[in-house]
Design brief:
heterodimer; A: 769 residues; alpha+beta; seven-stranded mixed β-sheet; six-stranded mixed β-sheet; 19 helices; 28% helix; globular; B: 79 residues; mainly alpha; binds zinc ion
């Protein structure tokens, strides 16, 4: 049974943080919610993609004449049917736009699309793949970043010496002097694995190109606006001629805001055939041909004083970038930034190197580089505390961020509840009493961002926007560019809109995920929607409210801003709440007063001058109780407790769901989800061999919600639900350290690693070391 | 060493002033940009851009940035 407590509840709201169920919940549980898989268009064909069996090879020739002879096959496309444009999501940096989704010259990973077929059924399309003859010249491949930077390594992209794709450097303070001040310095190397996003809905798209030169794409994605802009770019079309619809999306987790083979190939086939084409990835395709969490090698050197005061930290990180840049370049930067979190360092230096290899490209995934950073940081901090004989919680606490702290030249911390998090976790540990011999508790701290401030997509639009329209019956249309991917953002925006306007959540109709009808917004990534689209929504609703109140003011003579308000559909004088009228009455008066023009409020938000990374940061501390079977090395999570500072919660139920979901994904990353490659080939691309955490393995996810007030967020809200993917792996590692004294340097921790570490420890002890 | 506040170091390739305007920040800027003109400038000083980068990546400390910073300082036009 999960426990949920609220620490420091503050001001009361009418709608905000009350018990609101997801507004799309009924449609989903009754099966009426229409996903891309459900789309059927007249004359629709089904597409399948032929993929490279080689990790690195030149494409010499593709002959698909035999495939075209199969009855039911309508067409085949290859790289030659495309404009050959190299695309990428970092549009501001042309070097980083390095991927042709149907490559013309060579393939760089196993599973890369080479050709696509459209046929009358999926089965016929699949059969036709066997009749496409591709002539390759196989090249030497390289799979690990530390091999790929060697002098004699094969060149994966022309002009990138030693396969170094991107470098990032972060530094503040006098690092060497701060290390000189340290009385104890510790160095460690760590290895962090990849992780599959494992969305319940695999990549899916239906594209329909018409003779009017318009393209409509239904797709499972995290940002309809990105898809529209990126597709227009690769197809040589105007953005306005591409419509992207993504009403219901079955998960994203960072993997669905880049172009994928389903969207691109269905569009190219549709352009060639003037028929709608549907492509749905199988689970295996989703594993081998969509991007994954970035695997990383981490070197960490940390200097502290004997009393536990942190002095300096240096990190050098090599990420396995795979074949293309994608969003992995951002993970490279963010891992370096969050590796400093949530602590104060006199000197901090990070050198990050993203290296091309002949493996599946790596990209953003929930936590965006921070789970890797915390796996290394939080374990090393625990080991340092043990080396110095200090209390790990108090050592963390004395070095932590606080409200008003400025990470030099990087970020301003306007709200920070980490201190209360330490108190809550201490209480939880004390409540456990003496644990059985095979159990122990590990903990880990972290912080996370509320959306990125960087405009690497190079868009002239605002980062978030919203339009609020009030109907004559008092119902409200809210148009947002944000993307609902199952995280509940439409519900969050409905709550913010209802609170700001003074009406009920049931009065709000949210429209999102359609570029023809919704304003541009960068979409669902980096925990940006509650803060960024939330601000835009609040602004739009407040604008509409102000316009309405002008009519109430005209009849009452009261001051709009100070004396009048709307709550729960009742327009009234603040000092005399009984003196007022129904919201709908005022709306009708306003319509008459404006010659029938509807009330329309607009809102937008782009963070300016808010540091280098994000306008706001959340904080959390997590404890996990771990049981270990010494015979088999098997780990069982018995219990957990998270103390989480998310500013002002907007949706209580949504918050719990997000925190539990993040925890389950993070636990999987820590000890189950393993992606082994052999010569560039993923060895477990299915749900039997790739171990996700199941309900039977989930421990209670207890939560203490620490409410602070974030001045930059709508009603004081900030991130919740992504950051909690960050601490769990390290907390599991720390529990193993406390139970056995073993130090786990590779993530995920697998049973054989525990057994080997125990064996090694016993051997050392036998030798008297 | 020059005082970066009064006499900021300007990138000899693109003319940008990096962060504080010190030579080491200029070196960081050159590594960070890493495009063809910046690489060629470093190589033309008798250094190897890629070797310095790999050294920086694989050894603790800031030696490579410091080597480049020293060269940038030496090649600054005299006033
Ligand atoms: Zn320059």
């Amino acid at each position: 049974m999960n426990k949920y407590t609220v620490i420091n509840p503050h001001s009361k709201f009418t709608v905000l943080n009350t018990h609101v169920h997801n507004i799309d919940g009924v449609a989903k549980v009754t099966g009426r919610a229409e996903y891309t898989f459900d789309i059927k268009l007249p004359g629709m064909l089904y597409g399948k993609i032929l993929r490279s069996p080689h990790p690195h090879a030149k494409i010499l020739n593709i002959d698909y004449s035999r495939a075209m002879e199969i009855p039911g096959v309508y067409g085949v496309v290859t790289g030659k049917d495309t404009l050959g444009i190299k695309q990428g999501i970092w549009r501001r940096y042309k070097d980083l736009c390095d991927e042709q989704i149907l490559p013309v010259d060579k393939v760089r990973y196993i599973g890369e699309p080479v050709a696509a077929v459209a046929a009358i059924t999926e089965e016929i399309a699949e059969k036709a793949l066997d009749y496409i003859d591709v002539e390759y010249e196989v090249l030497q491949g390289v799979y690990e970043p530390l091999d790929a930077i060697k002098k004699d390594a094969p060149e994966i992209h022309e002009g990138f010496e030693r396969n170094i794709n991107v470098t990032r450097h972060i530094e503040w303070g006098e690092v060497e002097e701060a290390f000189d001040e340290a009385e104890y310095v510790r160095e460690d190397w760590f290895k962090c694995g990849g992780q599959a996003h494992m969305c319940m809905e695999t990549r899916a798209a239906v594209s329909s190109y018409t003779p009017e030169k318009k393209m409509t794409i239904y797709s499972s994605n995290q940002s309809a606006y990105y898809m529209q802009a990126l597709m227009a770019g690769v197809l040589g079309m105007r953005e306005g001629d591409v419509r992207v619809i993504a009403q219901y999306v079955g998960g994203g987790f960072g993997g669905k805001f880049e172009l994928d083979g389903a969207i691109f190939c269905s569009a190219i086939l549709s352009m060639k055939l003037f028929r709608p084409v549907k492509i749905i990835y199988t689970r295996e395709e989703d594993f081998i041909a969509t991007k994954r969490r970035t695997p990383m090698f981490y070197y960490v050197r940390t200097g502290v004083k004997k009393d536990g005061t942190f002095c300096a930290r240096e990190a050098k990180v090599f990420t396995n970038g795979g074949a293309y840049t994608g969003m992995g370049a951002t993970a490279l930067y963010l891992t370096g930034f969050f590796h400093s979190f949530p602590y104060r360092w006199k000197g901090y230096r990070y050198d990050g190197y993203r290296v091309y290899t002949n493996t599946l490209p790596s990209t953003s995934m929930r936590g965006f580089g921070a789970p890797q950073a915390m796996w290394c940081s939080e374990q090393q901090i625990e080991w340092i505390a043990a080396d110095l004989g200090l209390d790990p919680i108090e050592m963390r606490r004395k070095n932590s961020h606080y409200e008003g702290y400025e990470v030099p030249g990087q970020a301003t911390i306007a709200s920070c509840g980490i201190d209360q998090c330490y108190d809550e976790i201490k209480k939880w540990i004390a409540s456990k009493g003496k644990l059985p011999a095979n159990r122990s508790i590990g903990l880990s701290a972290c912080g996370f961002m509320s959306g990125g401030i960087f405009n690497w997509f190079d868009t002239p639009y605002s980062f978030s926007s919203a339009v609020v329209t009030i109907n004559q019956d008092g119902t409200v249309e809210l148009h947002i560019g944000a993307q609902e991917i199952g995280q509940g953002s439409n519900t969050t925006m409905a709550i913010i809109c209802a609170e700001a306007l003074g009406v009920k959540v049931g009065d709000i109709k949210v429209h999102s995920g359609d570029t023809d009808h919704c304003p541009a917004d960068l979409g669902a990534w980096g925990s940006r929607q509650t803060l960024m689209t939330g601000n835009a929504t609040k602004m739009a609703a407040e604008s509409a409210k102000k316009q309405l109140l002008e009519f109430a003011y005209a009849q009452s003579g009261l001051n709009i801003v100070y004396d009048l308000d709307i709550k729960d559909g009742w327009v009234h004088a603040i000092a005399r709440p009984e003196r007022g009228e129904e919201f709908v009455q005022l709306v009708r008066k306003a319509l008459r007063g404006k010659d029938g023009q509807r009330i329309v409020g607009r809102g937008y938000y782009t963070p300016h001058r808010k540091g280098m990374i994000s306008p706001a940061y959340s904080y959390m501390l997590q404890g996990v109780e771990v049981e270990v079977d010494e015979e088999t090395g098997k780990i069982t999570l018995v219990d957990s407790m998270t103390a989480h500072d998310c500013g002002q919660p907007i949706n209580h139920l949504g918050l719990i769901g997000q925190l539990e979901g993040a925890f389950s994904m993070a636990a999987g990353y820590g000890y189950l989800e393993y992606m082994p490659y052999e010569d560039g080939k993923l060895m477990n691309p299915n749900l039997v061999d790739y171990k996700m955490i199941r309900s039977t393995e989930m421990p209670p996810a207890n939560i203490a919600e620490i409410d602070t007030y974030e001045p930059e967020g709508p009603y004081g809200a900030k991130e919740a639900g992504e950051g909690l993917t960050n601490p769990t792996a390290a907390a599991i590692g720390n529990a193993l350290f406390h139970r056995f004294g073993i130090q786990m340097k590779e993530c995920p921790v697998r049973p054989e690693m525990i057994l080997n570490a125990l064996k090694e420890k016993k051997e050392k002890e036998a030798q008297g070391k | 060493m020059s005082d970066p506040t009064n006499d900021p170091v300007i990138c000899p390739v693109c003319g940008k002033k990096a962060k504080t305007g010190s030579a080491i920040d200029c070196a960081r800027h050159m590594f960070g940009t890493g495009d063809k003109p910046h690489r060629e400038w470093v190589n033309a000083q008798g250094l190897s851009f890629i070797d310095l980068l790999i050294d920086q990546a694989t050894t603790p400390g800031n030696a490579s940035y410091q080597i480049l910073a020293d060269v940038i300082e030496k090649t600054r036009p005299k006033k």
